[in-house]
Amino acid sequence: MELRHLRYFVAVAETCHFGRAAERLRLAQPALSHAIRQLEGELGATLFARTTRQVSLTPAGEFFLAEAQRVLDTLADGMHGVRQIAGGRLGLLRMGFTGTAAFSHLPLIARTLKRDLPEVALDVNADLLTPAQCDLLRSGDLDLGILRPPVRGEDIELLVVENEPLILAVPADHRLATEPVVSTPDLRAEGFIGYASKDSVVNDAVTRSCEAAGFTPQREHQAAGTAVLLSLVAGGLGIAMVPTSARALPLEGVVFRDLTDAGSVELALAWHAGNDSALVRSVVDVLEPALTSPGAVPTAAADAPNPEGSP
């Protein structure tokens, strides 16, 4: 039995007419009749009741029609899946995010993939620092990452999607919460809250900004992630300089202020240079214009100082 026999049988069963089925199949009617007789002979059953006026399915034919359609549908689904996978349009994408990027950039990424690559499933791995993401990209346990450069080694491809200014996070009752203008030298006497990791790109950027302003930041407390860091700020344990995307985590008791002279940190889409996956290529092609277009990721405005002095 060949697949063509199933297609021929379904065409006759759906039209109940050998002539119309032959036209649909672009096949000579005698050849179609011969193929159906071959199929019946192989099955050992009569599939059609034939008279001079009509053709109808026998009980065996009705059963075989459902089975033949199921087989052909499964084959069609399989062919579609293979083509989609080969074209990078179907599969599971494992993606890492650093810090607040999951809050600021994940919504846009998810919407873009749903619109342009709807058969791609997204597996999100959040709160991964840059070194950890690079290791997972190299091992093949991640397909793409949103991380903060620089990276070690030349085998990680980077597409910078944003250059985020550092902003100030202070307790709502802090003196700087109501100042009209805040600059880095204003932070000289403050106790800082930083990230606990020795590999933190943000810590390094904060240190450079403060040293450019003539002082070294005194880190009195550390936090594993931005959510905990901002909670410590809300608790009055210190101030923090964080990327602009931290505004995606509004927290009662924390006021965000722009800094006139602070540095910035880059955010980049990353993948392993040796990854020849069609899925990764397709996703990068789709995400690049979405992430790099001006205003792609909305940023909340700075908290306005209260002229009356109350938070």
Automatic annotation (TrEMBL):
Keyword DNA-binding: yes
Stored CDD domains: PBP2_LTTR_aromatics_like
Family matches, as InterPro entries: LysR_HTH_N (IPR000847), LysR_subst-bd (IPR005119), WH-like_DNA-bd_sf (IPR036388), WH_DNA-bd_sf (IPR036390)
Domain HTH lysR-type, first and last residues per copy: 1-58
Alphabetical keyword list: DNA-binding, Transcription, Transcription regulation
Tree of life domain: Bacteria
GO cellular component terms listed in the entry, alphabetical order: protein-DNA complex
GO molecular function: DNA binding; DNA-binding transcription factor activity
Family: Belongs to the LysR transcriptional regulatory family.
UniProt-recorded name of the protein: DNA-binding transcriptional LysR family regulator
Organism: Prauserella isguenensis
